[in-house]
Amino acid sequence: MKIDTFSQMIEDKEYNWIETLPKYQQNTISDLLANNTPEEVAITWLTASTQNTSPFSAKQENTNTYFEMIKKELHKLLCGNKEYEKEREELSGIISSDNNKKMLISSISGIIGSKVGLAATFIAPITVLIIMTITKVSLNAWCNLQVDKNEIV
């Protein structure tokens, strides 16, 4: 699947991506966004919750490491890394279905969660917050920016 397929959906500036989350997460994330950037909210979410969701993971990581791991894996998935070729094909079917944005967030969070050792429901807000950041520029620009900043190798 090409980046353009993701771009069309992810760059929908009119859509409120927070609505893809369960109500209790929507309320918390919305409150935090009132005074913080999406990245600050993502780190706050991880700081407040990681100790409760990662004890079952084989490898314990700190909050910033989890955030960077999630961002790196999302970059690989959304920006065309061959490691995620099969997953992008599966996501293309979701994009063409009804209720696709909720399903897309759920699926992406499951894919990334399995890579970083965290539950999909826990990292769904992080996925949404990063997508909200992408909608402010474009997927292609975000992909390039992460490489330019040497945040993603």
List keywords for this structure.
153 residues, globular, mainly alpha
Entry summary:
The chain is mainly alpha-helical.
What's the layout of helices and strands?
Blueprint: H1 3-10, H2 23-33, H3 38-53, H4 63-78, H5 85-95, H6 100-116, H7 120-135, H8 139-148
Helix pairs in contact: 3-4, 3-7, 4-6, 4-7, 5-6, 6-7
Plain-language structure description:
It is built from eight helices and no strands. It has helices at 3-10, 23-33, 38-53, 63-78, 85-95, 100-116, 120-135, 139-148. Helix 3 (38-53) runs antiparallel to helix 7 (120-135), helix 4 crosses helix 6 and helix 6 packs across helix 7. The two termini are 21 Å apart.
Q: Topology as H/E string?
A: HHHHHHHH
Structural class: mainly alpha
What share of the residues lie within helices?
A: 55-70%
Low-confidence stretches: 53-58
Spatial separation of the terminal alpha carbons: 21 Å
Number of beta-strand segments: 0
Largest sheet: none
Estimate the mean pLDDT confidence: 83
Number of helices: 8
What portion of residues belong to β-strands? under 5%
Radius of gyration: 15 Å
* Overall 3D shape: globular
